[in-house]
Structure formats: C-alpha cells, structure tokens
Amino acid sequence: MRLKHLFMLLAMAAIMVACSEKADEPNSELTPEIILSQEPIWLDSQEGIYEIEYTIKNPSAGLKLDAKSNVDWASVIEIKEDVVSFIAKANDEAGDRRGTIILSYGQAKAEVKIYQHVRVDVNFEAKTLDGVYYGTRY
Known about the structure:
Blueprint: H1 2-20, E1 33-36, E2 41-43, E3 48-57, E4 66-69, E5 74-79, E6 83-88, E7 97-105, E8 108-116, E9 132-133, E10 136-137
C-alpha cells in the first residue's frame, strides 16, 4: 500500500514541475523569411499589371518590405501587406525576355523570375480547304 502512495506522490510532483515551467516566449532572434506563392511568373507579350503574392514569416517590428526590378521593362508600382504589383511593358523585341523582381525585408531576400513571351502577329487566310472526310472527298 505504501508503494502505491509513493508512485502517486511522484506522479503529482512530476505534473507540478511540468505545469510550473514558463510557456515558450516568442523568440526575437528568429530571422524573418519571405515566402512566395508562385515562382516563376510568365507574362503576356502585351503591357500589363501583374502581382506577386508573398508572406513574411517571423516579421520584425519596424521593417518594411522593399521590391525592385533588375530590368527596365518591368517596374514595381505598389507594395501592399501581402502583394507586390508591377507593370511590364509590351515586348516588341525579337525574342522572349527575362528579368527578376527582388523582394527584401531586412536581411531576408527573395527573387521572383519573370519571363515575357515575344509578341507574335499571325495573319491566317485560307483560300481553300481540301481534304478527305471518311472516304469522301470534299
């Protein structure tokens, strides 16, 4: 009978010790991280406004997100809490083009690759359509 009481006292003591420990406090040493919702982004050949969705993991007070483009044909126009908007000029060049939108938040950095297709103008004119359809010639 005494052994049973001893085990009960030990179990209660262990529970009291576990309950008296401090809860995990937020760690101010965690470094912020930028998490992107998509990457890379393919753009139409025509001028347009596009968005990059992001999330800041471990945000720090006093820091703001900064965004810039490394090419002259794409410019950041607005930075919101979870979206960066940028405008891309029409692609009138001979081929596809590529660039990068760079997001920075303190020491955290993220790069979004952007690709823009070449503009292709096709004029299709059919004077006659000829072929065989189920053995019958039209």
